[in-house]
Specification:
This protein has about 190 residues and is of the alpha+beta class. The protein is built from five helices and nine strands. Helix content is about 20%, strand content about 20%. InterPro entries: AhpC/TSA (IPR000866), Thioredoxin-like_sf (IPR036249), Thioredoxin_domain (IPR013766).
Length: about 190
Amino acid sequence: MEKNQKLQAGAIFPHVMVTTLDGDEVTLGVPRGHCEWQLVVIYRGRHCPLCTKYLNALEGHVEALSENGIDIIAVTADRRDQVEEHLSRLTVSFPIAYGLTEEQMETLGLYISLPRSEEETDHNFPEPGLFVVNEEGHLHVVDISNNPFVRPELESLVKGLAWIRDPENHYPIRGTWQDAESTLLYR
């Protein structure tokens, strides 16, 4: 994949292995337990107060997401010791994975930033990304930002995912139209 190429809605989610704080090697997009879908939240790191706030707010939606068959994992490029330090400001029950590499960030189509100073952090880091992977391994929802100020509003996201997961709604993956000559939607 070329640098800065973004993942396409409906595409197979790429195979990315990460390590959780529990020491488990996991593949992003593969849900745990009874869940069939997975919400993958990429965050900048411990240096970002907005990431801390977002992850803590996400904890308030764990039950609703689980009831809709959606597992959660958060991922950062921080080292294990940095994530362990960050835990003092986090109140989350979902797994956190660390050590996301620049190659993995590029594979996920994330924007990558350089630290502004050593006080901020000591490594390049991903800007926020949010991916919802369905039971077939396809990217059902994608949100990639180039800064920490723009992320999906969690209550709307959770309600929207409940709508999508309701089999009565037959809601397809959106944003997959690519060829005007091969698809006529409305006349």
